[in-house]
Amino acid sequence: MNFNVSSFELLKAVTAVSKAIPAKSPLPILEDFLFELDDNGLKITASDSELTLMTKIETVSTLENGRMTVPAQHIIELLKALPDQPLEIKTISDCAFECKWSNGQSILPFRPAEDYPEITGLGEDIVSLTMPAAVLVEGISSTIYATADDEIRPAMNGIFFDIDTDSTTLVASDAHKLICYTAKDVKAEQKTSFILQKKPANILKNLIAKDDSEVEIVFDSKNARFRCGMTEIICRLIVGKYPKYRDVIPQNNSNVLTIDRTQFLNTVRRVSVCANRASNHVKLEMANGLLRVSAQDLGFSLSAQEEINCSYEGQALTIGFKSTFLSEILANFSCEEIVMKFLDDKRAALIMPGENEAEREKLCGIIMPIMIA
Question: Are 351 and 367 in contact (CB under 8 A)?
């Protein structure tokens, strides 16, 4: 193997895929990058056996094709310490390669590419669809915080992609809160679904955040592949049946609160300072265009309350929520106003953006109340 490449482009590529490198692996070779060089450029792969990241960069010149695995930590630290300049990388023996720059060089070990584990592929029964990168990023960002950490119900630990013939809905829930993000016109030929694990979802969101192209999604019953530009992610899916989330979304909540989201969020944060540390409960009292938010911790003689002007239509209502869950939802909505709909103090409240109908159809959530004294 012998090629010339920009140190900046190589650093950017290895940094992007390094998120799949395990901190410690029973297979030491998985702590390496797989470099594969041909006339079309340099392909770089990193994997922890469940998650694989691949990207491709153009070389300045390719003198000799080849394959090898490169120690990830060493090459990243070296590239970070170098200013942007041309590099020459070439193998000099059966187990070492040279990295040469303008006024210096480094010799690093490598392992044969043949020892690198085979990358998991997809089966024959696959489903394909495309999704605008911006929509996918927004969908993951809007839902991932609501996923669970549940050993008993692993299906709840990821984002559920509910794909229909006219739209796709991303769903996440930890049983206390549920968030749905619907992307219109992202569809498949037939109704299908998969559950994406949190780690690849987070990596996917960060890798394509600044990309304005489309993401190609291909999946089977066990694995999924996301391709955007020169970057590709292959990951293992969560196998299991997701709960019927549409059945728990309330349809007839008649008490309606419309309020400035930021003001409401800041009030909940201030008042919850005096809430019981174990329960984090806050109480909402709504009537006659006024919302009172209060909390107390009788054990430490702490209490706080704050009143906010709002628009409220319905019967006077007192309801309690866990402040951390309520704050989390309010913080992850980006609208100026939010609408909360209640039926009574014992059933789930529906939360949605207050701006327009299109936004309400795109994003909604529910939060379960708690009993208050």
Answer: yes
